[in-house]
Amino acid sequence: MSASDNTPQVDAAAHATPTFTLLRALSVVSAICGLIIVGSYLLTLDRAKDNRRLASERAVIKVLPDAKSVKPWLALANGDVVPAGEGDPPTGAVRFYAAYDANGHLDGVAAEGAAKGYADTVRVMFGYRKACQCIVGFGVVSMRETPGIGDKIITDKDFLANFKALDVKLTEDLAGLANEVKVVKHGTKAQGWQIDAISGSTVTSRAVGKGINDAAQILLPRLVPKIDRLEKQ
Amino acid sequence: MSESSPLLAPPSTWEEFTEGLWKRNPVFVMVLGMCPTLAVTVSAVNSLSMGVATTFVLAASCFLVSALRKLIPKEVRIATYIVIIATFVTVTDYAIQAISLDLYEALGAYIQLIVANCLVLGRAEAHAARNPPLAATMNAIGMGLGFTLSLVMIGGVREILGAGAFFGFSLFGPNFQPWVVMVLPPGGFFVMAGWLLLFSIVRRRAQMRAQENERARAAAETSGACHGA
Known about the structure:
The complex is a heterodimer of chains A (233) and B (229). Chain A is α+β, with helices and mostly antiparallel strands. Chain A has helices at 3-15, 19-63, 157-160, 202-223, 228-231; strands spanning 69-75, 81-83, 94-100, 106-116, 121-129, 134-142, 166-167, 182-184, 194-196.
């Protein structure tokens, strides 16, 4: 190979950006970006927290309309019930909300359930009252069901009537629900623990039933024996 | 380039700004950023919010890329541009959570996906990296507004046909039978195709008119030359 053949390579090597320059560019950009991210996080943190709290309270008051104040609690895997603190809950803990009336007495308890619907997971919130051992309110936290079909679960009056007093009594030993919450074909509801499905929106109706059943099966056996602890707050 | 060779005058700030609004509209002309365009345009409000969020990310990223362009060697430019874009997407994500959780839920993962919107990286690479901050920012804002306008045009049609409303205001009363498919994913393709068709017809007509004018001028010049001879 002649000397002239090597010239482009020599030129390329001479024009290569020094490693220090590359590192400096990456470091400066990373530092600037880091400052911007941390600054915006600190600026928005309180507002975002308030928004999350307000959204939870709104969802609880929708299912327990007499509630005047709401407090988050955790039902731990070991069966204990404790007020929810900051940060992530421990593994196996179930978050629920105690709703208090104007006099500070426990009005009911609200919790979230979730199950796979037609398009995506349907997240629902339900209200529970100790006196009747039943679900007395229902609302949707989030869903992406087909507009005009699956989303009838929030507008269909017959379907919403299922949740005026849906039976979720526990067994004698308080180990689980005496009767599983079940979604039945439209017009065939015969028992208090059954949910009459919406004709044409069976998949979404089933998701609601399964979400409530799964959540109640875990939460109520932990909560009911210690529900008086919520009263004393 | 020699001094005597003709140079194109650099575009003015106003030209930079208007480029993306219509002439090089990101959605209807350049067909960029199709993922949010089709996914979040189920309503005019969602479209406007996504458009504003993208405009902010675009403008802030292009400003910073342009301001740092002399510091960033070409070997690491893509890495730095993506870090800058991801930074402003994160800022937008926090801001929307602080402004409205309902909006945050409605836009879902598409806020984070602005990082992968080829419009943003495309403008950073093709324009901001080669122009001063003012020109880069104005061009980015124009492109962002063009993107927002396109999204609202798609989202508006989908909301009107699919829900009988515009920006949440009911237009046709309670007896309106919604055309549900318009708020489902296929509706995004239908409306997008309709707008692209319209833009294509307008562009083609403008081209034909320009060609006809050109031909008429050439014919006039030829006849003038013959007459003169």
